[in-house]
Amino acid sequence: MQKIKRTTAGVTFESDVLEFIDSLARDEQRSRSFIVNSVMRWYGKWLAEQKAKVEAKRQETVIQR
Q1: Would residue 5 count as lying in a domain?
Q2: Sign of the dihedral through C-alpha 51, 52, 58, 62
């Protein structure tokens, strides 16, 4: 397992986003940082899957007559 290095990053959230993050944090009984990290990890995996799907479609050979 890859070791995770933690770094503080100054981020300014818009009010609606902060409200959503705080709501998730309360519901999941987790910290705001945990929620933001989890969402970003999920998004990163999703984005990689989407890119892989696009690449796979590019590699398909389509023959039309």
Answers
A1: no
A2: negative
Is 51 in a helix, a strand, or coil?
helix
- Single out the residue of 41, 44, 20, 42 nearest to residue 32, CA to CA: 20
In a domain, 10, yes or no: no
What confidence tens digit (pLDDT) does each residue in 45-54 have?
Answer: 999 999 998 8
pTM: 0.75
Structural domain including 31 reads: 15-59
Whole-angstrom CA distances from 65 to 18, 57, 62 are 55, 19, 10
Structural domain count of the chain: 1
23 found inside a domain: yes
Per-residue model confidence as pLDDT tens digits over 12-37: 999 999 999 999 999 999 999 999 99
And the tokens for 33? 């940082």
